[in-house]
């Protein structure tokens, strides 16, 4: 009786490990993409909440728009979207429901243009869109068929 592993036993173990890895890698990629979408959606949500708070406390108007092909959220200090305040880089591509309507906030912190920002490839994420209403901003799940963001409370 020999002590150790035979070549056949080692090959079988390697084949089993290879099968497990081939199943785990796509699942991990899908999971990490879902987490990335959720994190970036939350980043957009917080940026818009911050913009709304600044508008209210500083008594200024602000505007936000997606730039760089939806990979950046740009905040402006005016309603014309010309005086840039900051750029927020995004790792996920986002789009506006109504691209012709920028997100504008008046000096009272009220959104004067209602719109939604959604992750282009955000399927499966628990949150993948941000919706603005007059007084409220919410995160939700994008319904591509109805073209609307369903808020989660």
From TrEMBL:
Name of the featured protein: Prepilin-type N-terminal cleavage/methylation domain-containing protein
Keyword Transmembrane in annotation: yes
Transmembrane segments annotated in the record for this chain: 6-28
Keyword set, alphabetical order: Membrane, Transmembrane, Transmembrane helix
SUPFAM superfamilies linked to this entry: Pili subunits
């Amino acid at each position: 009786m020999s002590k150790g592993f035979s070549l056949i036993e080692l090959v079988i173990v390697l084949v089993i490990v290879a099968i497990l890895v081939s199943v785990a890698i796509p699942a991990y990629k899908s999971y990490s993409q879902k987490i990335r979408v959720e994190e970036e959606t939350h980043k957009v949500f917080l940026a818009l909440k911050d913009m709304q708070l600044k508008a209210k406390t500083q008594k200024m108007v602000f505007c936000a728009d997606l730039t760089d092909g939806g990979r950046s959220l740009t905040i402006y200090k005016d309603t014309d979207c010309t005086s840039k305040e900051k750029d927020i880089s995004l790792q996920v591509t986002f789009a506006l429901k109504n691209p012709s309507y920028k997100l504008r906030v008046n000096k009272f912190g009220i959104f004067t243009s209602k719109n939604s920002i959604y992750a282009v490839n955000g399927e499966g994420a628990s949150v993948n869109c941000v919706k603005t209403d007059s007084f409220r901003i919410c995160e939700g799940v994008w319904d591509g068929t109805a073209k609307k963001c369903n808020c989660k409370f």
